[in-house]
Amino acid sequence: MDATVVSHTRQAGPPGRWLLLTHQLPPEPAYFRVRVRRRLTAIGAVPVKNSVYALPASETAREDFEWLFREIVEDGGEATLCEAVFLDDRTDERLRGELIADRNAAYAAIRDEAEAAAGEAGGSAVLRALRRRLEEAIARDAFGAPARHEAENAVAALEARLSNDRKESQMNVEGRTIEGISGRTWVTRRGAKVDRIASSWLIRRFIDPSAELRFVDPETHVPAAGELRFDMFGGEYTHAGEMCTFETLVDRFGLADPALRAIAEIVHDIDLKEDRFGRPETAGVASLIDGIAAGHPHDEERIRRGAEFLDDLYTHFRGAPA
Predict the structure, then answer these.
(1) pLDDT tens-digit series, residues 159-204
(2) The overall pTM is greater than 0.70
(3) Which of 251, 254, 224 minimizes the C-alpha distance to 239?
(4) Helix, strand, or coil here: 226?
(5) Across the chain, which distance is largest between two alpha carbons, in Å?
(6) pLDDT digit string, tens, across residues 232-243
(7) In what order do the strands lie in the sheet with 3-6?
């Protein structure tokens, strides 16, 4: 290899300087070799020859290679990490071309997934994952791969569509206002858990967006004129027959939305400790709600955290096949 090697302690330079990782791995265990190959692929390193891999010199590349260097040495392999300049233009051009192709492929995958999610009403979780992947791809894009702009535009379009969907879904699902229900005071028991967290979200998002929520001690609370009580004994909206409060609200306000029905089935089984509907998401939702309740003693914070999660869960069910 025709290269000029400089000290490892030297500061990373501009494109044209390369970090080289040379390694030799023991024959066993086989999974160690597989792990190293996967790690090299994940960080976008390209082979120079045999067991020599290169990345354009940068702080990100240095950190990636240093972690892998430590893993190789600690697990019984040998490795050398250095900074170099190739004296033959062909090697430099080949490595640049391979890195640009690799970044273009990563950007194209992000673009395709963003466009698919936009067409199929994907969820906020998909958007967050794509943003993270886009940031990682940009951080490793030393040579300005041209597909970056398409990926950025596709992710931005998905974000805009999800924002519009959220605004539209904050209206009643049939585009109607609910007569007499606007800016009311909604009262429930303090110590909110799954039914009260979900019902509070439902009220503010679909029934009364400007609702004021109050959390009270049911033993001492004296009902005031005009307030609406939910999930309380004697309340206007509470358990009815075999329905939990969330189901009662969905039924009484005519919210004929399959996504809300799916959430209602989950809330029912968690709140009533049943397995009537047997939805696969129920156990995970129960664990998350338990975590919110355990980590946040104040009801307002429980409602806020629960609303963020339920927004995403609702978006997920809107995009799920019927």
Answers:
(1) 887 766 655 544 444 333 455 578 899 999 999 999 999 999 999 9
(2) no
(3) 251
(4) coil
(5) 87
(6) 988 899 998 889
(7) 3-6, 78-86, 18-24, 52-56, 46-49
